[in-house]
Amino acid sequence: MKQEENIIPYGRQHIDEKDVRAVIETLNSDFLTQGPKISEFEQKFASYVGAKHAVAVNNATAGLHLAVLALGLQKGQKVITTPITFAASANCVRYAGGEVWFADIDKKTYNLSLVATKKLIESKPKGFFTGIIPVDFAGLPVNTEEFRNLANEHNLWIIEDACHAPGGSFQDSKGVIQKCGNCAYSDMSIFSFHPVKHIACGEGGMITTNSDQHAKKLRLLRSHGITKENMTVNHGGWFYEMQELGFNYRLTDIQSALGITQLLKNDEGVKRRNEIASKYKEAFRGKLSFQDLPEGHYNAHHLFVIEVEKRKELYDFLRTHNIFAQIHYIPVHTLPYYKQIGYDGAALKNAEDYYKKCISIPMFPSLTDEEQDYVINKVLAFI
Ligand SMILES: *Cc1c(COP(=O)(O)O)cnc(C)c1O
Asked: Thinking of the domain 3-382, which architecture would CATH place it in?
Protein backbone atom coordinates (compact mmCIF):
# COMPACT_ATOMS: atom_id res chain seq x y z
CA MET A 1 0.00 0.00 0.00
CA LYS A 2 1.30 3.39 -1.04
CA GLN A 3 0.50 5.11 2.27
CA GLU A 4 2.77 2.75 4.18
CA GLU A 5 5.75 4.64 2.73
CA ASN A 6 4.48 8.22 3.01
CA ILE A 7 4.38 10.00 6.34
CA ILE A 8 1.00 11.55 7.08
CA PRO A 9 1.46 14.39 9.60
CA TYR A 10 -1.32 15.80 11.83
CA GLY A 11 -1.20 19.10 9.92
CA ARG A 12 0.49 20.45 6.81
CA GLN A 13 0.63 23.74 4.90
CA HIS A 14 -0.72 24.04 1.38
CA ILE A 15 1.40 26.23 -0.92
CA ASP A 16 0.47 26.51 -4.61
CA GLU A 17 1.85 28.28 -7.68
CA LYS A 18 -0.09 31.46 -6.88
CA ASP A 19 1.57 31.69 -3.47
CA VAL A 20 5.01 31.15 -5.00
CA ARG A 21 4.39 33.81 -7.66
CA ALA A 22 3.22 36.35 -5.05
CA VAL A 23 6.41 35.89 -3.05
CA ILE A 24 8.65 36.16 -6.13
CA GLU A 25 6.87 39.34 -7.24
CA THR A 26 7.51 40.87 -3.84
CA LEU A 27 11.16 39.81 -3.93
CA ASN A 28 11.46 41.72 -7.21
CA SER A 29 9.67 44.82 -5.85
CA ASP A 30 11.08 47.84 -4.01
CA PHE A 31 9.98 46.70 -0.57
CA LEU A 32 10.94 43.52 1.26
CA THR A 33 9.59 45.00 4.50
CA GLN A 34 7.73 48.15 5.65
CA GLY A 35 6.11 48.35 2.22
CA PRO A 36 2.59 48.19 0.76
CA LYS A 37 1.94 44.43 1.09
CA ILE A 38 1.62 44.71 4.86
CA SER A 39 -1.27 47.16 4.88
CA GLU A 40 -2.90 45.29 1.97
CA PHE A 41 -2.78 42.07 4.02
CA GLU A 42 -4.06 43.90 7.11
CA GLN A 43 -7.01 45.41 5.25
CA LYS A 44 -7.94 42.11 3.60
CA PHE A 45 -7.67 40.24 6.87
CA ALA A 46 -9.74 42.81 8.77
CA SER A 47 -12.46 42.63 6.16
CA TYR A 48 -12.32 38.81 6.10
CA VAL A 49 -13.02 38.48 9.84
CA GLY A 50 -15.20 41.59 10.02
CA ALA A 51 -13.10 43.69 12.38
CA LYS A 52 -12.30 47.40 12.01
CA HIS A 53 -8.53 47.01 12.35
CA ALA A 54 -5.96 44.29 11.78
CA VAL A 55 -2.35 44.80 12.87
CA ALA A 56 0.22 42.39 11.40
CA VAL A 57 3.05 41.12 13.59
CA ASN A 58 5.91 38.64 13.21
CA ASN A 59 4.13 35.84 15.10
CA ALA A 60 1.08 35.31 17.29
CA THR A 61 3.19 35.16 20.45
CA ALA A 62 4.35 38.73 19.75
CA GLY A 63 0.72 39.57 19.01
CA LEU A 64 -0.38 38.28 22.41
CA HIS A 65 2.44 40.23 24.07
CA LEU A 66 1.44 43.49 22.39
CA ALA A 67 -2.25 42.85 23.11
CA VAL A 68 -1.74 42.62 26.88
CA LEU A 69 0.51 45.70 26.77
CA ALA A 70 -1.98 47.72 24.73
CA LEU A 71 -4.67 46.78 27.25
CA GLY A 72 -2.39 48.16 29.95
CA LEU A 73 -1.62 44.96 31.86
CA GLN A 74 0.43 45.87 34.93
CA LYS A 75 2.80 43.88 37.07
CA GLY A 76 0.95 41.58 39.46
CA GLN A 77 -2.41 41.82 37.66
CA LYS A 78 -4.25 38.52 37.28
CA VAL A 79 -5.50 37.02 34.05
CA ILE A 80 -7.50 33.82 33.51
CA THR A 81 -6.84 31.40 30.65
CA THR A 82 -7.33 27.74 29.77
CA PRO A 83 -4.78 25.04 30.64
CA ILE A 84 -5.46 23.27 27.31
CA THR A 85 -3.69 25.63 24.93
CA PHE A 86 -0.26 26.38 23.55
CA ALA A 87 1.96 27.89 26.27
CA ALA A 88 2.01 31.31 24.52
CA SER A 89 -1.61 32.04 25.55
CA ALA A 90 -0.39 32.12 29.16
CA ASN A 91 3.18 33.32 28.63
CA CYS A 92 2.09 36.74 27.32
CA VAL A 93 0.75 37.55 30.78
CA ARG A 94 4.11 36.62 32.32
CA TYR A 95 5.99 38.84 29.83
CA ALA A 96 4.15 41.81 31.30
CA GLY A 97 4.78 40.63 34.87
CA GLY A 98 1.19 39.52 35.37
CA GLU A 99 -0.11 36.42 37.15
CA VAL A 100 -1.69 33.56 35.20
CA TRP A 101 -4.71 31.80 36.67
CA PHE A 102 -6.12 28.71 35.01
CA ALA A 103 -9.80 27.76 35.01
CA ASP A 104 -10.82 24.27 33.94
CA ILE A 105 -12.05 23.25 30.50
CA ASP A 106 -15.49 22.03 29.50
CA LYS A 107 -15.41 18.25 29.15
CA LYS A 108 -17.36 18.25 25.91
CA THR A 109 -16.06 21.24 23.94
CA TYR A 110 -12.52 21.20 25.42
CA ASN A 111 -12.76 25.01 25.55
CA LEU A 112 -12.32 27.16 28.66
CA SER A 113 -15.41 26.49 30.76
CA LEU A 114 -17.66 29.51 31.34
CA VAL A 115 -18.96 27.89 34.52
CA ALA A 116 -15.45 27.22 35.89
CA THR A 117 -14.33 30.75 34.96
CA LYS A 118 -17.34 32.30 36.70
CA LYS A 119 -16.74 30.15 39.77
CA LEU A 120 -13.09 31.17 39.93
CA ILE A 121 -13.93 34.86 39.55
CA GLU A 122 -16.65 34.71 42.18
CA SER A 123 -14.38 32.90 44.65
CA LYS A 124 -12.23 36.05 44.86
CA PRO A 125 -12.97 39.62 45.95
CA LYS A 126 -14.23 42.13 43.35
CA GLY A 127 -11.40 43.55 41.26
CA PHE A 128 -9.12 40.55 41.82
CA PHE A 129 -8.86 39.70 38.10
CA THR A 130 -8.04 41.97 35.15
CA GLY A 131 -8.73 39.93 32.02
CA ILE A 132 -9.63 36.63 30.37
CA ILE A 133 -7.88 34.93 27.43
CA PRO A 134 -10.21 32.25 26.03
CA VAL A 135 -8.89 30.09 23.18
CA ASP A 136 -10.93 28.75 20.22
CA PHE A 137 -9.46 25.33 20.82
CA ALA A 138 -8.93 23.09 17.76
CA GLY A 139 -10.94 25.68 15.79
CA LEU A 140 -14.13 25.57 17.87
CA PRO A 141 -15.23 29.17 18.51
CA VAL A 142 -15.66 30.16 22.15
CA ASN A 143 -19.04 31.77 22.78
CA THR A 144 -17.46 35.16 23.44
CA GLU A 145 -20.87 36.77 24.04
CA GLU A 146 -21.29 34.70 27.21
CA PHE A 147 -17.75 35.54 28.31
CA ARG A 148 -18.41 39.23 27.58
CA ASN A 149 -21.44 39.27 29.85
CA LEU A 150 -19.37 37.75 32.65
CA ALA A 151 -16.44 40.08 31.93
CA ASN A 152 -18.68 43.14 32.01
CA GLU A 153 -19.96 42.23 35.47
CA HIS A 154 -16.39 42.23 36.73
CA ASN A 155 -14.82 44.90 34.54
CA LEU A 156 -12.44 42.52 32.73
CA TRP A 157 -10.99 42.71 29.25
CA ILE A 158 -11.08 39.77 26.83
CA ILE A 159 -8.39 38.69 24.36
CA GLU A 160 -9.68 35.91 22.11
CA ASP A 161 -6.81 33.64 21.14
CA ALA A 162 -8.21 32.69 17.73
CA CYS A 163 -4.99 31.08 16.43
CA HIS A 164 -6.90 27.87 15.63
CA ALA A 165 -9.99 29.48 14.20
CA PRO A 166 -9.79 31.81 11.17
CA GLY A 167 -13.05 31.14 9.31
CA GLY A 168 -14.86 29.79 12.39
CA SER A 169 -18.06 31.39 13.71
CA PHE A 170 -20.91 31.05 16.20
CA GLN A 171 -24.44 32.34 16.38
CA ASP A 172 -25.04 34.79 19.22
CA SER A 173 -28.21 35.13 21.32
CA LYS A 174 -29.71 37.49 18.71
CA GLY A 175 -29.15 34.95 15.95
CA VAL A 176 -26.28 36.93 14.42
CA ILE A 177 -23.35 34.94 12.98
CA GLN A 178 -20.19 36.20 14.69
CA LYS A 179 -16.94 35.34 12.95
CA CYS A 180 -13.91 34.51 15.07
CA GLY A 181 -11.79 37.61 15.42
CA ASN A 182 -14.49 40.16 14.58
CA CYS A 183 -14.13 41.44 18.15
CA ALA A 184 -17.88 41.93 18.60
CA TYR A 185 -17.46 40.57 22.13
CA SER A 186 -13.70 40.68 22.66
CA ASP A 187 -11.30 43.60 22.98
CA MET A 188 -8.78 42.00 20.66
CA SER A 189 -8.27 38.71 18.85
CA ILE A 190 -5.04 36.98 17.86
CA PHE A 191 -4.19 34.82 14.83
CA SER A 192 -1.07 32.84 13.91
CA PHE A 193 0.42 32.23 10.47
CA HIS A 194 2.75 29.43 11.51
CA PRO A 195 2.61 26.70 8.82
CA VAL A 196 0.67 24.23 10.99
CA LYS A 197 -2.15 26.81 11.23
CA HIS A 198 -4.67 27.60 8.47
CA ILE A 199 -2.77 30.45 6.82
CA ALA A 200 0.96 29.86 6.34
CA CYS A 201 3.42 32.77 6.19
CA GLY A 202 6.43 30.87 7.54
CA GLU A 203 6.04 32.90 10.71
CA GLY A 204 3.45 35.57 11.25
CA GLY A 205 0.54 36.83 13.29
CA MET A 206 -2.36 39.28 13.31
CA ILE A 207 -4.15 41.22 16.00
CA THR A 208 -7.68 42.38 15.25
CA THR A 209 -9.64 45.03 17.16
CA ASN A 210 -12.48 47.49 16.70
CA SER A 211 -10.77 50.12 18.85
CA ASP A 212 -8.91 52.95 17.06
CA GLN A 213 -6.96 53.64 20.21
CA HIS A 214 -5.79 50.04 20.67
CA ALA A 215 -4.85 49.73 16.99
CA LYS A 216 -2.73 52.88 17.23
CA LYS A 217 -0.96 51.64 20.35
CA LEU A 218 -0.31 48.21 18.76
CA ARG A 219 1.24 49.84 15.68
CA LEU A 220 3.47 52.01 17.84
CA LEU A 221 4.62 49.08 20.00
CA ARG A 222 5.33 46.73 17.09
CA SER A 223 7.89 49.16 15.66
CA HIS A 224 10.12 50.24 18.57
CA GLY A 225 7.63 52.79 19.89
CA ILE A 226 8.94 55.08 17.14
CA THR A 227 6.60 57.42 15.30
CA LYS A 228 6.42 60.58 13.20
CA GLU A 229 2.95 61.42 14.50
CA ASN A 230 2.04 63.70 17.43
CA MET A 231 5.67 64.66 18.02
CA THR A 232 6.59 66.99 20.85
CA VAL A 233 9.15 68.81 18.63
CA ASN A 234 10.17 68.48 14.97
CA HIS A 235 13.70 69.20 13.70
CA GLY A 236 12.89 68.47 10.02
CA GLY A 237 11.98 65.80 7.50
CA TRP A 238 14.26 63.16 9.00
CA PHE A 239 12.90 63.56 12.49
CA TYR A 240 11.07 60.92 14.50
CA GLU A 241 10.38 60.29 18.16
CA MET A 242 10.54 57.18 20.29
CA GLN A 243 7.53 57.70 22.52
CA GLU A 244 7.31 54.28 24.16
CA LEU A 245 9.61 51.34 24.80
CA GLY A 246 8.50 49.23 21.84
CA PHE A 247 9.81 46.20 19.98
CA ASN A 248 10.58 45.06 16.48
CA TYR A 249 7.62 42.73 15.99
CA ARG A 250 7.02 43.60 12.31
CA LEU A 251 5.87 41.21 9.60
CA THR A 252 7.73 41.51 6.27
CA ASP A 253 6.23 42.27 2.86
CA ILE A 254 7.42 38.86 1.65
CA GLN A 255 5.37 37.15 4.36
CA SER A 256 2.42 39.48 3.82
CA ALA A 257 2.33 38.69 0.09
CA LEU A 258 2.10 35.01 0.99
CA GLY A 259 -0.55 35.78 3.61
CA ILE A 260 -2.72 37.54 1.03
CA THR A 261 -2.81 34.58 -1.36
CA GLN A 262 -3.19 32.10 1.52
CA LEU A 263 -6.11 34.08 2.97
CA LEU A 264 -7.95 33.83 -0.37
CA LYS A 265 -8.01 30.04 0.02
CA ASN A 266 -9.07 29.95 3.65
CA ASP A 267 -12.82 29.45 3.18
CA GLU A 268 -12.20 26.59 0.80
CA GLY A 269 -9.70 25.06 3.24
CA VAL A 270 -12.09 25.31 6.19
CA LYS A 271 -14.83 23.73 4.10
CA ARG A 272 -12.55 20.81 3.27
CA ARG A 273 -11.52 20.53 6.94
CA ASN A 274 -15.21 20.21 7.84
CA GLU A 275 -15.70 17.47 5.24
CA ILE A 276 -12.78 15.57 6.76
CA ALA A 277 -14.23 16.08 10.25
CA SER A 278 -17.65 14.75 9.16
CA LYS A 279 -16.07 11.62 7.76
CA TYR A 280 -14.05 11.02 10.95
CA LYS A 281 -17.18 11.52 13.06
CA GLU A 282 -19.17 9.10 10.95
CA ALA A 283 -16.46 6.48 11.26
CA PHE A 284 -15.90 6.91 15.01
CA ARG A 285 -19.39 7.70 16.34
CA GLY A 286 -20.26 5.35 19.20
CA LYS A 287 -16.69 3.99 19.26
CA LEU A 288 -14.70 6.86 20.74
CA SER A 289 -15.28 10.46 21.78
CA PHE A 290 -14.42 13.69 20.00
CA GLN A 291 -15.10 17.42 20.43
CA ASP A 292 -18.76 18.46 20.69
CA LEU A 293 -20.13 20.97 18.19
CA PRO A 294 -22.57 23.27 20.01
CA GLU A 295 -25.64 24.41 18.07
CA GLY A 296 -24.91 27.31 15.71
CA HIS A 297 -21.12 26.92 15.88
CA TYR A 298 -18.95 26.47 12.79
CA ASN A 299 -15.66 24.78 13.70
CA ALA A 300 -12.64 25.95 11.69
CA HIS A 301 -10.96 22.61 12.53
CA HIS A 302 -7.32 23.40 12.98
CA LEU A 303 -7.21 19.99 14.68
CA PHE A 304 -9.24 16.82 14.94
CA VAL A 305 -8.84 15.38 18.43
CA ILE A 306 -10.06 11.98 19.55
CA GLU A 307 -10.06 10.60 23.08
CA VAL A 308 -8.85 7.04 23.64
CA GLU A 309 -7.97 5.09 26.79
CA LYS A 310 -4.66 3.72 25.53
CA ARG A 311 -3.41 6.96 24.09
CA LYS A 312 0.33 6.29 24.22
CA GLU A 313 -0.14 2.88 22.61
CA LEU A 314 -2.23 4.40 19.83
CA TYR A 315 0.34 7.16 19.29
CA ASP A 316 3.14 4.56 18.96
CA PHE A 317 0.99 2.25 16.82
CA LEU A 318 0.14 5.05 14.38
CA ARG A 319 3.81 6.05 14.16
CA THR A 320 4.81 2.53 13.13
CA HIS A 321 2.32 3.01 10.28
CA ASN A 322 3.75 6.43 9.35
CA ILE A 323 0.84 8.40 10.77
CA PHE A 324 2.40 11.17 12.83
CA ALA A 325 -0.31 12.09 15.30
CA GLN A 326 0.32 14.76 17.94
CA ILE A 327 -0.89 15.66 21.42
CA HIS A 328 -2.63 19.01 21.99
CA TYR A 329 -1.79 19.96 24.63
CA ILE A 330 0.20 19.08 27.71
CA PRO A 331 -1.76 21.16 30.27
CA VAL A 332 0.11 24.45 30.63
CA HIS A 333 -0.07 24.46 34.45
CA THR A 334 1.85 21.14 34.54
CA LEU A 335 4.81 22.47 32.52
CA PRO A 336 7.90 22.82 34.75
CA TYR A 337 8.02 26.61 34.46
CA TYR A 338 4.44 26.98 35.69
CA LYS A 339 4.91 24.29 38.35
CA GLN A 340 7.93 26.19 39.70
CA ILE A 341 6.01 29.42 40.04
CA GLY A 342 3.60 27.52 42.22
CA TYR A 343 0.53 26.70 40.21
CA ASP A 344 -1.48 24.07 42.06
CA GLY A 345 -3.32 22.12 39.40
CA ALA A 346 -5.53 20.09 41.73
CA ALA A 347 -8.70 21.86 40.65
CA LEU A 348 -8.26 21.25 36.92
CA LYS A 349 -9.60 17.74 36.71
CA ASN A 350 -11.24 17.97 33.28
CA ALA A 351 -8.02 19.27 31.71
CA GLU A 352 -5.93 16.53 33.30
CA ASP A 353 -8.41 13.77 32.36
CA TYR A 354 -8.56 15.13 28.82
CA TYR A 355 -4.77 15.15 28.54
CA LYS A 356 -4.55 11.43 29.41
CA LYS A 357 -6.73 10.52 26.43
CA CYS A 358 -6.34 13.17 23.72
CA ILE A 359 -4.60 12.61 20.40
CA SER A 360 -4.79 14.76 17.24
CA ILE A 361 -5.08 12.77 14.03
CA PRO A 362 -4.34 14.14 10.54
CA MET A 363 -6.42 17.21 9.64
CA PHE A 364 -5.39 19.44 6.74
CA PRO A 365 -7.11 20.41 3.47
CA SER A 366 -4.79 18.46 1.17
CA LEU A 367 -5.36 15.17 3.06
CA THR A 368 -6.67 12.83 0.36
CA ASP A 369 -9.68 10.52 0.76
CA GLU A 370 -7.35 7.59 0.35
CA GLU A 371 -5.06 8.85 3.13
CA GLN A 372 -8.02 9.53 5.41
CA ASP A 373 -9.42 6.02 4.86
CA TYR A 374 -6.00 4.67 5.75
CA VAL A 375 -5.95 6.71 9.00
CA ILE A 376 -9.50 5.65 9.91
CA ASN A 377 -8.71 1.98 9.28
CA LYS A 378 -5.59 2.11 11.42
CA VAL A 379 -7.40 3.82 14.31
CA LEU A 380 -10.29 1.36 14.14
CA ALA A 381 -7.90 -1.59 13.88
CA PHE A 382 -6.19 -0.38 17.08
CA ILE A 383 -9.34 0.11 19.14
C1 LIG B 1 0.25 28.60 17.53
C2 LIG B 1 -0.38 29.24 18.68
C3 LIG B 1 0.13 30.39 19.29
C4 LIG B 1 1.44 31.00 18.91
O5 LIG B 1 1.57 31.23 17.57
P6 LIG B 1 3.00 31.67 16.93
O7 LIG B 1 2.61 32.37 15.68
O8 LIG B 1 3.73 30.39 16.67
O9 LIG B 1 3.69 32.54 17.90
C10 LIG B 1 -0.60 30.97 20.31
N11 LIG B 1 -1.74 30.43 20.74
C12 LIG B 1 -2.25 29.30 20.21
C13 LIG B 1 -3.54 28.76 20.72
C14 LIG B 1 -1.58 28.66 19.18
O15 LIG B 1 -2.06 27.53 18.67
From this structure: 3-Layer(aba) Sandwich (3.40)
